[in-house]
Amino acid sequence: MLARSMTLCTLALAGTALADPEQVSRWAEEGKVRAEAMRGLPFLQDVPVEFMTRSEIEDAILDMVEEQMPPEWQLRVDRGYKAFGLVPMDSDVIGDMIRLVVSQAGGFYDPDAEHVILPDDLEEFMGQMAGEMAAQAPGFMEQLMRNILTHEFTHALQDQHHDLNGMLDVTLDDDDVRMAITALVEGDATLIGTGAMMSPEGDLTGLLQQDPAAMGAMMGAGGGMVGPEAAAMPQILKETLIFPYVHGYILVTTMVRDGGFERVDAAFADPPISTEQLLHIDKYLGTERDEPTAITLPDIDLEALGWEPVSENTLGEFQIRVLLGNSPDAIMAAEGWDGDRFRVWEQDDGRLGVAWISVWDSDADARQFAEECIYHEARRFEGDAARPTRTNADGRLEIAVGNPQDQSWVTVEGDTVVLTRGFPADTIGVIEDSMRRFSQMSIKTWADIRANAESQAEVSTP
């Protein structure tokens, strides 16, 4: 998952064919007043609105990624997705993420430049999204602009009161935490924007009376992406783009129904830190929060065998669903997730190998996941190589598919599963043993995440 540059970019003023400047200015001022009133937070400074073409937006984001995202981070994202087969080996993962976001965007808020940015082709874009007849209906563009501007001004309010960069910058090495926090951010803005679209006065009463899960499901079903860029993109990129809006809306709306926006502001100080807490919101909002397990991987030196470590990250329950195919069986297999961590190694010839350890709520959950995981892995092979071999003795389950040069091996002991993927059969034993014996586990909390990030920043500062 790309960092904040996916939706936040620094842009300069450009002309617009959307509407005359006076009309846009009026919509913007109304949007600021509406966002303040609906969200219950005052603006601490003004937020300008600017326009740019989509190609200019893409160029600006690319420049920002090069300037602000370390090359090792870009490599980590690229190799992580490729090692699990989530994207083609020849794909440009970072470039694809940026192109997908730009192709689907209705607006951006940039906390660096503190501007709201609108693409200059909104009328054409919304005609594709909603259908030409809807786009030409009286009042459609004004209704649309209420949604977009109020949504983006809500991001500005979040940033001025809760420091969006400060929240997101501490999660560069954990996609699952980043996606959960992004869901809080986008869910808050989606509720406000949707409410503004439905009511010019910004009255949320009717929207809050609707079942949040049903509304979220409707948003997901109706949020299909349009255009050739989206059609050509890997499913993981599309799913992770949509997730924060749908599941964030469900979480935030539930909080507002129960405790008002004061509850949402409190969540910015102690946010959800796993997609599990978004998929099962009682695990975040319940009386006893279900915090995930943090896993610290051991050093495993494979340099003598030609393998160099290039990526380390966490998938989390949602991305595991997508990895396994998002089928009902895949969703059930991912539900017992409690924590995971993986590392990727690369050979000089471009081959990738991954070692992945995961912890589950019960021994039964671990075995259910392992069976679904090896079923997924078997599809990489043909003939005898795709037929699993298994041993089950002394409380340890081992299942393998593949060939001597490239094997997927899943082992289960108690509530812990280890997958090695892409390595030769004569290498996987030492990797699996090290992952299982020397990985350190603890409870993951937001306070620890921030403290660890601050500690790493101090170490890296000359």
Model description:
It is a single chain. With 462 residues, this protein is α+β, with helices and mostly antiparallel strands. It folds into two domains: 4-285, Neutral Protease, domain 2; 293-443, 3-Layer(aba) Sandwich (Protein Transport Mog1p, Chain A), CATH 3.40.1000. The protein has 20 helices and twelve strands. The protein has a seven-stranded antiparallel beta sheet, sandwiched between helices. Helix 2 packs antiparallel against helix 4 and helix 16 packs antiparallel against helix 17 (328-334). The protein is globular. The protein starts with 20 loop residues before the first helix and ends with a helix.
Tell me what the CATH architecture of the largest domain is: Orthogonal Bundle
Mean pLDDT, to the nearest integer, reads 88
How much beta, percentage-wise? 15-25%
The count of domains is 2
CATH topology (fold) name of the largest domain: Neutral Protease, domain 2
Rg from Cα: 23 Å
- The end-to-end span amounts to 29 Å
Report the total helices: 20
Strand order of the largest sheet: 5-6-7-11-10-9-8
Would you report the number of β strands?
12
Spans of at least 5 consecutive residues with low confidence: 1-17
Q: Which CATH C-level class of the largest domain is it? A: Mainly Alpha
The coarse silhouette is globular
Biggest sheet statistics: 7 strands, antiparallel
Percent of residues in helices:
40-55%
Query: What structural class do helix, strand and pairing data support?
Result: alpha+beta
